[in-house]
Amino acid sequence: MAKLTVRDLDVKGKRVFIRVDYNVPLEEKDGKMVITDATRIVETLPTLKLLIEKGARIVLTAHLGRPKGKREATMSLAPVAVKLSELLGKPVGFIDDCIGEKVEAGVAALKDGELVLLENVRYYNEEEANDPAFATKLAKVADVYVNDAFGAAHRAHASTEGVARVVTARGGKAAAGLLMERELKFLGDELDHPVRPFVVILGGAKVSDKIKVIDRLLEKADTILIGGAMAYTFKLAHGEKTGKSLVEPDHKQTALDAETKAKKLGVNFQLPTDTIIGTPVDTGKLNKKGKPVYDFVDIKTIKGEIPDQAEGFSIGEETAANYAKIIASAKTILWNGPMGMFEDPRFAAGTNAVALAVVEATQKNGAKSIIGGGDSVKALNKAKLGDKVTFMSTGGGASLEFLEGTVLPGVAALSEK
Ligand code: ADP
Ligand code: MG
Questions:
Q1: Are 201 and 167 contained in the same domain?
Q2: CA–CA distance, 164 with 147 (Å, rounded to integer)
Q3: pLDDT single digits (tens) 260-316
Q4: Strands 15-19 and 144-147, how do they pair?
Q5: Which residues surround ligand 2, an ion (CB under 5 A)?
Q6: Element spanning 97, H or E
Q7: Same domain flag for 231 and 104
Q8: Which domain holds residue 208?
């Protein structure tokens, strides 16, 4: 059941209402809000250029921050319109509301290939409540609906779901943008029919965050490699000591069940054989949130149990080398969750070694490598390897839900081909 995409649409002269992800980081400088990272705006350019070429009249809608139903001046999308105009090299109008007469007049004045950005939809509480009357008001300027905000598709809000329903109920089309199309292709089709061997690398903080993904991927993968703090809950479940490591004692059974399922299905399920540990010491300082700041001393690699006073922070070199060897034989790779606390350079080596192995499998063996999860993407970018994998999801929480097999409301609302 493939979804309709912008490629399939005839939009000449039509008003295309497109939901994008312009939730960009802003900083105040000399009383003005300045965009500090325009990646999300840049990423929408292919879809916008295609729509411009096709002669659509483009109405852009997005949210910024959490204004909680109020007009927060610091969360206005006005600076985004300026930036987008710069990037496209053509004017982008801005309307300081997302519904009402001003919007209707502004959109009526659009010529083919012109664009206008509406103000933050979350200035209205009705957006997150997916209020049908609000969705109908938004849809007043929509002949066609396009969703290119995969990162917001796991929420049934008025601009991500409600408008699509209104437009399609009137006989109009709701389609995926090019960004959304790529997310559905790589996190969906490619993983549903993986070229084998299919190796899944799972890490991050918690078993409970990832258990649904583990459960679903056990049915598809040939091999699952576990890293990150998640590995320590498995250790604990085996009756091993984990010291002060981040563990979830309530999820010991969850971990054991995953291993049992792996055995039953013949999945090669690997846990780390060595661990980089450190001993936390209170520095006496407090962070911005008033919590004590710890430093770590006596950092070393161990095998087996983690001593009482110590904490595990990453997979060790032996594990990284073993995982790298397995990754080298893969034809499809999915990676979700870093192998350790990579934000601290002392604990980044394991994550970086796995990243390098994924890049090599991609570049040398033609493996398809797919990276999902906000922190995994950060880790790859930090290692400057982001552009050397096949696909990095922009979805964060939405990609995790999609990988769990959840039908995302923003995707479900799109028309079938
Ligand atoms: P993603 O966003 O890619 O899905 P997660 O949010 O599940 O990944 O996990 C990422 C976080 O897990 C990172 O902030 C990282 O520091 C943390 N983490 C990984 N391993 C450890 C560890 N051994 N101890 C503490 N934190 C860890
Ligand atoms: Mg995360």
A1: no
A2: 9
A3: 999 999 999 999 999 999 999 999 999 989 999 999 999 999 999 999 999 999 999
A4: parallel
A5: 374-375
A6: none
A7: no
A8: 194-404
Cβ(311) to ligand 1 under 6 A? no
In this prediction, residue 235 carries a pLDDT of: 97
Assess if residue 350 is contained within a domain: yes
Q: Which atom of ligand 1 is nearest to the CA of 231?
A: 23
Note if 289 is an active site residue.
no
Question: Beta-carbon neighbour count of residue 368 at 10 Å?
Answer: 20
Domain end call among 149, 181, 213: 181
CA of 334 to the centre of ligand 1 (A): 16
Report residue 334 as tokens: 């999915």
- Beta strands (DSSP E) in 96-218 are 115-118, 144-147, 174-176, 198-202
Residue 373 has pLDDT above 90, yes or no: no
pLDDT, tens digit, for every residue of 100-159? 999 999 999 999 999 999 999 999 999 999 999 999 999 999 999 999 999 999 999 999
Shared domain for 320 and 346, answered yes or no, is: yes
User: Which pLDDT score, from 0 to 100, does residue 415 have?
Assistant: 97
Consecutive H or E run containing 362: helix 349-365
Task: List alpha helices for 139-267, DSSP H.
Answer: 163-169, 178-183, 190-192, 207-217, 230-237, 252-265
pLDDT in tens, 158-194: 999 999 999 999 999 999 999 999 999 999 999 999 9
Predicted local confidence at residue 1, as pLDDT: 62
- Which ligand has an atom closest to residue 244 CA? 1
**Residue 1 belongs to a domain:** no
pTM of this prediction?
0.90
CATH value at residue 366: 3.40.50.1260
Reading the block at residue 122, the tokens are 């979350």
pLDDT, mean of residues 92-97: 98
Q: Is 403 in the pocket of ligand 1 (CB under 6 A)?
A: no
**Is residue 106 flagged as an active site residue?**
no
| Pair 248, 335 in one domain | yes
Q: Are 309 and 243 in contact (CB under 8 A)?
A: yes
CA atoms of 270 and 97, how far apart (whole Å):
53
Among 217, 247, 251, 341, name the best residue to mutate to test ligand 1's pocket (greatest count of ligand atoms within 8 A of Cβ): 341
Q: To 5 degrees, how large is the angle CA 402–CA 214–CA 399?
A: 20
pLDDT at 397: 86
